[in-house]
Predict the 3D structure of the following.
Amino acid sequence: MAVAVVLAVVLVLGGPPPAGAAPEPLSADTVLQAVNQYRQARALPVLLPTANLQAIAQAHSASMAAQGRLSHAGFDQRMALSGGDLCVENLAAGHTRADVLLAHWQVSPSHHANLLEAQVQWAGVAVAGRYVTLLACRLPAAAALRG
């Protein structure tokens, strides 16, 4: 039986870079790197990218960009496509840097819970226009290898 976990959405524009820091532009790679650094600092395993989850996240970010709005509609279908029995999803819009996006997810209780979900180990992250999807799942070995 599939279990869906709390879904979270945030729409906050990014702020200025921290003093003395060079801003990293927002990309799927920088978002996953920021999330993994945060998880590692809390003794959690990193999320490993997988092509299947990446494709699912990309399709969802593209759909949100086409509609011009954030939406968790279709989460059950994305979870089914993942092959996982546990998935979490964080969405965002309007950010230009991964560090600022992560900071906003950290202060939102539902986003934060998703970031710290210890049972997920695979992820897909996608950016389309101003929309970001992070889909992280617990996958059986066969689903994790799909690509």
